[in-house]
Amino acid sequence: MPNDTRILAVDDREENLTALAAVLDALPVDVVPVTSGQAALKELLTDDFALILLDVVMPEMDGFETAEHIKARPRTRDVPIIFLTAGGGAGEQAYRGYATGAVDYLTKPFDPWLLRAKVSVFVDLHRRNVQLRQQAQLLRRTLGGDDAGALAGCERLLAALDERLAKVEDDVARLGSGEPAAELGEHVGELRLALDAFAAGT
Length: 202
What we know:
Blueprint: E1 6-10, H1 14-23, E2 30-34, H2 37-46, E3 51-55, H3 63-72, E4 81-85, H4 90-99, E5 104-107, H5 112-143, H6 150-176, H7 184-201
Parallel strand pairs: 1-2, 1-3, 3-4, 4-5
Helix pairs in contact: 2-3, 5-6, 5-7, 6-7
């Protein structure tokens, strides 16, 4: 089953991309590998990513230039970037990396546990931000934009809670009768989202 959290890995060496995918295999993420800055920018046109792991030393468009393009686009400027490099002059490169908007800078060979821990932090932040956006959208849809519609909005929010609770109850009933309930986790998540939105709006 594919994960809904994606990480963009950018490195001109295939073996490095394979190693990154192996390091992050234990995390609930999909690693999307590309071998150039241009390919990374193309991926970012249509797909959303929680994090970018970006090699500094690449032919044609290096990591710094790629990062500058990423940060110049409104759609992608808030995507965190971790630079990875085996190049010399680590101090100067690190300074330039942070200046282009990177959140971290690691030199190769890096500690796999350290990289995994850092990636986990940004994945968790991304998921929390997505959840907050979903809660805000739910509140806007149910409460409306003015005081006059507040009561009707509360009623819609309660109806949304009832609908989500009914789905969970149906799933539990299926489990009780020995039938599979593959969507139970998704339905519980939707119910939690609605409950959190209701708590935020009361």
